[in-house]
Amino acid sequence: MFCFVKYEDGWENRWVKPDWKKDQNMAGECNFTSGIQTSEDYRFYAISAEFPEFSNKDKTLVFQFSVKHEQKLDCGGGYMKLLSGDIDQKKFGGDTPYRPDATYSILVDNVEKQSGSLHSDWDLLPPKTIKDPEPRRYFLPEDWDDKEYIPDPEDKKPEGYDDIPKEMPDPSTRVHGRQRSVESLLVL
């Protein structure tokens, strides 16, 4: 066992509170009671502790913590980072890099429920490249017209087109064999 925190007198002395988010007035202040407790909603919390250098070569490394969320969380949670010893603990925060291989394994009651790569299994970072929504524009001239239909410059009206009446008479409006006018229809 390399690091085990037992909440007895003086345990909080080995923890370092960083300056992360203090300049933005978004840093939360941890309380040390019978554990590490957050005090305010909508704040960023970070805390770190060193443990002796070790090697787990050819051995399983168990890296775990217990958490109790007492507030109703809209957005948030708790997590741990296993870091190399060259981290400045006063600058520790959310942007501090994870383990170099960025792999994870989630065990519940020592049974693996999920494992994989943080880079390929989670949308942690935006993609380095995205699909161009308009790829054709790079291969077309600047004056290219994307209209689906355009007027045909060769198109001509058929002969006699302008002589065709705009409205056709309705045979049902004939009275005594003559066409009624619109005015007479309105009067009737």
From TrEMBL:
<dbReference type="InterPro" id="IPR018124">
    <property type="entry name" value="Calret/calnex_CS"/>
</dbReference>
<dbReference type="GO" id="GO:0030246">
    <property type="term" value="F:carbohydrate binding"/>
</dbReference>
<dbReference type="GO" id="GO:0051082">
    <property type="term" value="F:unfolded protein binding"/>
</dbReference>
<dbReference type="InterPro" id="IPR013320">
    <property type="entry name" value="ConA-like_dom_sf"/>
</dbReference>
<feature type="compositionally biased region" description="Basic and acidic residues">
    <location>
        <begin position="147"/>
        <end position="169"/>
    </location>
</feature>
<dbReference type="InterPro" id="IPR009033">
    <property type="entry name" value="Calreticulin/calnexin_P_dom_sf"/>
</dbReference>
<protein>
    <recommendedName>
        <fullName>Calreticulin</fullName>
    </recommendedName>
</protein>
<dbReference type="Pfam" id="PF00262">
    <property type="entry name" value="Calreticulin"/>
</dbReference>
<feature type="region of interest" description="Disordered">
    <location>
        <begin position="133"/>
        <end position="188"/>
    </location>
</feature>
<comment type="similarity">
    <text>Belongs to the calreticulin family.</text>
</comment>
<dbReference type="GO" id="GO:0005509">
    <property type="term" value="F:calcium ion binding"/>
</dbReference>
<comment type="function">
    <text>Molecular calcium-binding chaperone promoting folding, oligomeric assembly and quality control in the ER via the calreticulin/calnexin cycle. This lectin may interact transiently with almost all of the monoglucosylated glycoproteins that are synthesized in the ER.</text>
</comment>
<keyword id="KW-0106">Calcium</keyword>
<dbReference type="GO" id="GO:0005789">
    <property type="term" value="C:endoplasmic reticulum membrane"/>
</dbReference>
<keyword id="KW-0862">Zinc</keyword>
<keyword id="KW-0256">Endoplasmic reticulum</keyword>
<keyword id="KW-0479">Metal-binding</keyword>
<keyword id="KW-0430">Lectin</keyword>
<dbReference type="GO" id="GO:0036503">
    <property type="term" value="P:ERAD pathway"/>
</dbReference>
<dbReference type="GO" id="GO:0006457">
    <property type="term" value="P:protein folding"/>
</dbReference>
<dbReference type="InterPro" id="IPR001580">
    <property type="entry name" value="Calret/calnex"/>
</dbReference>
<keyword id="KW-0143">Chaperone</keyword>
